[in-house]
Amino acid sequence: MSQANFRAPRRKRKVYESYQSPFPVPLSHEDSYADDFKICQAEIINNSVVVTSPQDIELLYGKGYFGKGILSRSRPQYNIGDQQLAAKWRGSKMNLPIITSKKYQCHVEWAKGLLEEQGLSTYSVNKILEDYTGPHTPPSEKKDPDTNEPRTDMEHERRKCSESSDTRATGVPNNQNPSEDKVLLEENPIYDPLAKYGPDVLDTPDTVEEPDKEALEKMYCHKHDDFIVQCGCKPKKQILQTGSDSTGLQEPDHEYVLVQEEGCDTGLEGEDTKQETGVDRKEKLVCRRNPFKIFEHLQLSREEAFFLVYALGCLTVNYQKEPLTISKLWEVFSAVQPNFRTTYMAYHHFRSKGWVPKIGLKYGADLLLYRKGPPFYHASYSVIVEFVNENLEGFPLRPLTWKSLAGLNRTTVNVSKELLFCYLIKPSDFTERDMLSPECLKKIKVQELIVNRWIASRERMDPDEL
After folding, report:
1. Cα–Cα dist 346/325, whole Å
2. What is the mean pLDDT of residues 280-304?
3. For residues 421-431, average pLDDT
4. Distance between CA atoms of 420 and 385, rounded to whole angstroms?
5. How far is Cα 15 from Cα 368, in angstroms, rounded to an integer?
6. How far apart (Å, rounded) are the C-alpha atoms in residues 264 and 282?
7. Percentage of the chain surpassing pLDDT 70?
8. What's the pLDDT tens digit per position in 170-185?
9. Active-site position among 284, 297, 417, 426
10. The dihedral sign for the CA sequence 430, 435, 439, 441
11. Which of 187, 209, 218, 347 has the fewest CB atoms below 10 angstroms from its CB?
12. Pairing of strands 256-262, 98-100
């Protein structure tokens, strides 16, 4: 196996994050960090591998820069707030995203469309949205009536839920306070379609005394390589709560935003702005609830997903809530993506050497190689993968003429990269049946070739040297 001479990559001028250590790979169950080893969950949706858990998203991207955000350029850090408005209202000292009134109305229209699809009448839809999107006191400014001190948004939601428990049980408010009528309307599943996604009663961790027996039987102990029921180990505290609905303790039920509006009666006053008509109007921030929340997910390429499953063992890919085995995943990815096998061989090779490979479709290549990760360095190489025999002959996966090769090399040089050919060399006894299993990686050799542009003026020799 021959290797190319790699050059030092070009570092980015401004780096805004620190480098984290990659995934810990436990070599045995006796390792000190084996208990901290976490298996993330992914799901195949429309032929794409998607991670939805915020904890798994942060772990996968932070430790190896796997995948990209579906709403962001690379790092999954989508925020509904407008950066320009946040800079304009930086003196308001409100830790909430700020959006324009036009953008907020778009979210209201989207929520209205979803409610109408459920068969609700126009009057009911308008009534729901009117009550749901009304002005609210910012969560940071809410005070406890007993202590007259600021309380968190979670405490406010827990208190509101406990105060309205009798109302939900009977369906009739205890008094004629208009605020209680609003609570009944908001949390009634008939009028509020979002109510079914939140718990009716918020339990604290102290109320969880006994674990779910069915969940306990499925828990696996990595330390003793057996089930917890058999080895006698105690499950972690966070595992005991898997049988109960504890989503209300993790995040608030509602997402609050600050909407910049003009000529409103309530809100946080801002600077006077003069319109084209010559009339001065005041811009104010009004705290409202977002009726249509957008969630940021992490999308993994098939090569990244299979590497996490096969090489690191820290990911489980599910299809229709059923986990897929390694052989089944290899079969599914090969059927969906014809060049998956060869591309993954090259991906596995470069990942093992410390590179961070990414899909290089936008530069006309199969892979892009980053040192440490995209936040620190620009991509150094555009990789073309070829599957050949021992004589470097074979059917080309990407047919290139001299003209197309010159154009590809020129494009690569213009973006400060180098073109690298990765030849996957198969042995003489290698058959198509061997490709049906990922164990074929053990028989493949790799040869790397860097393509440089030949410039006549630089290569011309002086007559004295002849």
Report:
1. 22
2. 87
3. 91
4. 9
5. 20
6. 8
7. 64
8. 333 444 444 444 444 4
9. 417
10. positive
11. 209
12. parallel
For the chain, the three-class secondary structure string (H helix, E strand, C coil) is: CCCCCCCCCCECCCCCCCCCCCCCCCCCCCCCCCCCCCCEEEEEECCEEEECCHHHHHHHHHCCCCCEECCCCCCCCCCCCCHHHHHHCHHHCCCCCEEEHHHHHHHHHHHHHHHHHCCCCHHHHHHHHHHHCCCCCCHHHCECCCCCCECCHHHHHHHHHHHCHHHHHHCCCCCCCHHHHHHHHHHCCCCCCCHHHCCCCCCCHHHCCCCCHHHHHCCEECCCCEEHHHHCCCCCHHHHHHHCCCHHHCCCCCCEEEEEEECCCCCEEEEEEECCCCCEEEEEEEEEECCCCCCCCEEECHHHHHHHHHHHCCEEEEECCEECCHHHHHHHHHHHCCCHHHHHHHHHHHHHCCEEEEECHHHCCCEEEEECCCCCECCCEEEEEEEECCCCCCCCCCCCCHHHHHHHHHHHHHCCCEEEEEEEECCCCCCHHHHHCHHHHHHCEEEEEEECCCCHHHHCCCHHHC
Per the CB < 8 A criterion, the answer to whether 246 and 154 are in contact is no
Length of the chain in terms of residues written: 466
Tokens 């009634």 correspond to: 188
- Reply yes or no on whether 378 is catalytic: yes
pLDDT of 73 = 83
Percent of the chain exceeding pLDDT 90 equals 27
Residue 219: phi and psi, rounded to 5, are: -75, 135
**Is 353 among the residues known to form the active site?**
no
For residue 329, what pLDDT is reported? 94
Long-range residue pairs from 362-368, CB within 8 A, at least 24 positions apart, any chain? 363/411, 363/412, 363/415, 363/417, 364/408, 364/411, 365/408, 365/412, 365/419, 366/339, 366/398, 367/343, 367/422, 368/417
Question: Does the annotation mark 370 as catalytic?
Answer: yes
Its pTM stands at 0.67
User: CA neighbours within 13 Å on the CB side: how many for 122?
Assistant: 0
Among 20-29, 35-44, 392-401, whose mean pLDDT is lowest? 20-29
- CA distances for 255 relative to 122, 289, 315, 358, angstroms: 24, 6, 30, 34
Amino acid letter for position 414: N
Query: What are the Cα distances from residue 141, in Å, to 10, 150, 151, 288?
Result: 48, 6, 8, 14
- Maximum Cα interatomic distance, the chain, rounded to a whole number of Å: 106
The residue from 347, 363, 370, 423 that is catalytic is 370
